[in-house]
Amino acid sequence: MSIDLTGKNALVTGGTRGIGRAVAHTLARAGASVTACYRSDEEAAAVLARELKEIGGDHTVVRADVSSPEDVAQLMEHCHARGGLDVVVNNAGVIGDQTLEELTLDEWHRVVTNDLTAVYLVVRGALGLLTEGASVVTIGSAAALRGLPGRSHYTAAKSGLIGFSRTLAKELGPKGIRVNVVAPGVIDTDEPPGQPSEQQRRLGSLIALRRLGRPDEVADVVLFLASDLARYVTGETVTVDGGF
Q1: Potential cystine with 8: which of 63, 86, 93, 202 (Cβ 3.0-4.6 Å)?
Q2: Residue boundaries of the structural domains of the chain
Q3: For residue range 195-221, what is the model confidence (pLDDT) as tens digits?
Q4: DSSP 75
Q5: Could you confirm whether domain 9-230 is CATH 3.20.20.105?
Q6: Residues 180, 235 contacting (CB under 8 angstroms)
């Protein structure tokens, strides 16, 4: 069964690399008009713009730091000019590795601001642009469900996305807007896929499917949640980790 998003406008934050890039490709191939935003990597942005042009359709790649209220306001003006939003995919984020003993307040704020507050800014900014039946999908992390040493700030922010999304599902449900989280496990974002490292082989041995995930496998779940096939799915966290 193919999913057709022709006539739908989609926003993908952090859309130029890894999972975000795969989501942008997948939504575009399904017929959506995609706006992808990025913070600083001009080369990756130019590559994505070329790739989306090759797929075909009306797509844009724009610079926006979604942790900045001013940048988000400009991003929403851009999306308004393109006819509103039917799909919002919150993918932009950062990661950090520090134990609590090492964790500084600045590092805590950096991760929480980029991984949690930025999603609040984007969704709140998009409220007036979301059409009836729109879908908001946020990329969380399976680590939020089990914890991960050295990443208390990261898992706290990703856990916060679950509560945030469940509450928004109840607030926005009467308007027909669905809000869900996709929680990936260990995803190999190398393009093209290379020879697995020793660490990747070790992690793969802990996964039921005995391999790491690929960005397109996360993107396919996002596509489902963005489509009418998931029209009665909201407030959910879908784990995509191969049975870790």
Answers
A1: 86
A2: 9-230
A3: 667 887 888 888 989 999 999 999 999
A4: H
A5: no
A6: yes
